[in-house]
Amino acid sequence: MSEFSPCPKCACVYTYELGEMLACPECAHEWSAVADIGDDDSSAAINDELSVIKDTAGNILQDGDTVKVVKDLKVKGRPVSIKIGTKVRNIRLVRDNGDHDIDCRVDGFGAMYLKSSVVQKI
Fold it and tell me: Are 6 and 13 in contact (CB under 8 A)?
């Protein structure tokens, strides 16, 4: 068994650390390890840490930033994918949309949600 808390999605007890995140091997769900911090930290500090959205390099993202895609992204229902290096301008951050925390418009693909783990701030 793992020393980390069980997966909040499927309750699997074999969770493991994946960088600054925790991951579940059964359902592939990833969540912040900050939620596993003990009771000695204040809930206000935890909420502040959770409200910050960072890119793959650890840069803090803000509304209106320009980012580039760092890996090919398949788009459901489209024969082509979003290629590495595609620039996305004027992003909007959303916090209550599951794993996808960036609302944007990608040229040639339209409006969509992206994960902050697949973009890098320019």
Answer: yes
